[in-house]
Amino acid sequence: MRDYTLQIWEKFGEEILNFIRKRVSSQEDAEDLRQEVFLRIHNKIDTLKNKERLIPWFYQITRNVIYDYYRRKQPQGSLPDLPYLFTDKFDEEPAQNITRSLIEFVACLPEKYREAITLTEIEGLKQSALAEKAGITLSNAKSRVQRGRALLKKALLDCCHLEFDPQGRLYNYIPRQICCKTC
What we know:
By secondary structure, the protein is mainly alpha-helical. The chain has two domains: 2-82, Orthogonal Bundle (Rna Polymerase Sigma Factor, Chain: A); 93-159, Arc Repressor Mutant, subunit A, CATH 1.10.10.10. It is built from seven helices and two strands. It has helices spanning 2-21, 27-44, 54-73, 93-107, 111-122, 127-134, 138-159; strands at residues 160-164, 170-175. Strands 1-2 form a two-stranded antiparallel ribbon. A hairpin with a 5-residue loop joins strand 1 (160-164) and strand 2 (170-175). Helix 1 packs antiparallel against helix 2 and helix 6 crosses helix 7. The longest helix is centred in the C-terminal third of the chain and has 22 residues, at 138-159. The model is unreliable at 83-88 (pLDDT under 50).
């Protein structure tokens, strides 16, 4: 198990440190927190049931370590708004990358759902116009759009771990597999 943790350290150590640095003001604290993250990973690696969820699991541990760090800084009161976790400056690059990838995911949908999503979500056609064009009822058109959205969401979440800020904006994504060539 020690060798496995060492491999994880070598592969993800810098990535985790960069993640922490964006959320903590002190370089020394960031390095200490990285050590704490890997100590927790080492102690709990045997509790991970699904090895495919390894990377999201790392980031969940990292976020918990950061939250604990802020809790220790203010033990008497409630948690602050965590000023270093989310800044007012919003980086649109992750959202733009995912948006470009969505076109490829739409292309992989079954024909009836691909048509429904393309016409309503991309081209802006109303669902009633989709129903008329496809020769189906409005209820069926709405169902196709909803099912298409659900399939699209599943494909995206199977491919990437998405992280959102408190305003619901995508601020980071982590590819889960090699399938994320465009992400």
